[in-house]
Amino acid sequence: MKPFVRARSAMLLCSIAASMAKSQAPQPAASYESAKVEIDVSKAASYKIPRTIFGTFLEPIGNSTYGGLWADVISNPSFEEGLWSAENLRKMWDEEPMLLRASDLGLPTPWEPLDYAQDHRYATTTDAANSQQSLLIMGLPDKETGVRQKVYLPVHRTLRYVGRLSAKVLSGPVTLSVSIRRRNHIDEILAETSLKLSESDWSSYPFELNLTGKRLASLEAVDFVVSLKNETRVLLDATSLFPDDNVDGMDPDVISLSKALRSPLLRFGGNFTSAYRWRDGVGPREKRFSMRNAAWGIPEYNTFGTDEYLHFCELIGARPQIALNLGTGTPEEAADWVRYVNDHWADKSGALTWELGNELWGKFQIGYPTVSRVAARTKSVSDAAKLVDPKAILIGTGGDVDFYHDWNAAQLQNPTAFNYLSTHFVVTTTAMQKKDASQDFKAEASFALPLGLETKLREMHAQIQSVPEARDKVKIAFTEWLFWAQAGDAVRYDNMGGAVAAGGFLNMLLRNSDIVPLADMTGIIDFGGIHKERSRVFGVPAYWAFRMYSNADAATLVDSHVAVAKYSVEEGSTRLPTIPDVPYLDVVATLNHSGDVLTLFCVNRHLTRDISAEFAILGFRVSAQIFAQTLYAGGIYAKNDAGNPQAIIPTALKIEQNAGKLIATLHPASVTVISLTKSR
Predict the structure, then answer these.
(1) Same-domain status, 415 and 537
(2) Same domain for 309 and 239?
(3) Whose CA is closest to 397, among 360, 425, 426?
(4) By CB count within 10 A, which of 251, 369, 409, 590 is most buried?
(5) Which DSSP string do the residues of 592-631 spell out, in sequence order?
(6) CB 509 within 8 A of CB 55
(7) What confidence tens digit (pLDDT) does each residue in 440-483 have?
(8) Rounded to whole angstroms, what are the CA distances from 594 to 553, 554, 597?
(9) N- to C-terminal Cα distance for the chain?
(10) How many separate domains does the chain show?
(11) Are 392 and 338 in contact, with CB atoms under 8 Å apart?
């Protein structure tokens, strides 16, 4: 994923109904309230819809792995300096001003002293059990001295927590206290255990903490504390705290929601790819080094590495899709990773999907090649991977749909180096050509974007087909897609507007799966998928929209025609500013493999109007068994959050049958999936 603040994150298109060409505000009109939809099942596509269009994406960014999937509640467990960029440190210190004072006392962020009044009783040292440094705690006579960290515990799920720390006694013997205490109330201990230390060298000590009753409210912050008494001195390192129901280090709620998506592919890639050394994330976890994720300026603890990623894929029923390092890496390093993964995945038969770099066209990409060198660089890594696994499925880095031509032309000099060319579209939904565009204008523009992308994808496909060696052999992989905005009232991945945009995007993928048979939504955790806030795990509205689609049995596209009011976009997204004739109702129809279930995927783009849709189904006798779900919030800026994690989830929708036709009232800005069973 590219840096959102860069110029490339420009915004989606603007939409204005034909009847309101001179106004940014949508005007009520009777024509917006009705639609006629004709589905002709006898007109079916000659190809099957591959389930790989429902791939998802995992990158160590934000709270995706650490603070998300990985269940350890401790940040900076090895007391390292330099894990965050200056910008990210400033944000942390702004949110928690006392962390700046803690840093002045010699404590690595986000650790704090147990008692700020004790001042300087801490120092970092290079004598470490893990990574580069440890923390020296120097006790005081007749006092308790220690460190603490603000954490959130999933007490709604479990009251038992297990952990481990590494310690080395400098003067002792020492008894360490490990505890959970009321946040900023050091005398209010909620759970505690003692560890007797006597070793003069590094040793690892497991511990367990048990909360009781209802002393801690769900979503309430606590302090995790490690402390000692009297004039003893101890080096502390490698400290962890997991809920006892973790699944091999992973959060069980995240696993459950991830599995429910039924995503067939899980991409492990992104900007971090271009500096990622895969060997840092294998082997015993206690030996793995913490370091900075160079792409995002956040910690990479390497506790979630290749083995953990492969295990997560197994747990959720997805196959791996891994991006190789074409930045700082070498072809030999890439080949070794292919060999390692093949030896550790399933039946070791290989034939996995590998990306040859990530967004190599961007100067923000570490070690990016120039357009004149990318083809040779791609081929060298492709050749190395194929020597290890001739059956490997390879994705070359293509350009984004709005600037792909010259870049892809360079890549197509060696079209046998890959099976796919990738494209991405992470778009900022507030960047408009129109000055002073209204919020409604920006929202309708965002909803129109998939139609503009559809045209661009067909152009991209035509360029590939024009190269004889690539014709009918190379297709497009849409390996990142996301509707993003900084904050506020805007269509973005975590609100209902983001779900409507995602539904339109998935409809576009269904219609174009013959040329784009692989796609990855950004991302399975954080962004458009699963969020974790204050230990509570939930799906954002776009997660539920994606889940409605990915759980449907869509195998074959059938003909559909929608008669409904349209609007056009002028001066919309700075990336795709013009999109004509955008229908307020977007419908895609598919059959399942056996041909006895017809599924209708419906997206109402109108911000304020219900659409009464009349469906005429030809060539398919509909039984009385109808299943319909709709995702609707009453406002496009509504969200799910930790306090109300299921405010927006799919609900049942009533479908009426009248004179052989189906009638459905589709809410404004909604996503609806209707499943019809064939009458026997």
Answers:
(1) yes
(2) no
(3) 360
(4) 251
(5) -TTS-EEEEEEEE--SS--EEEEEEEES--EEEEEEEEEE
(6) no
(7) 999 999 999 999 999 999 999 999 999 999 999 999 999 999 99
(8) 10, 11, 8
(9) 48
(10) 2
(11) yes
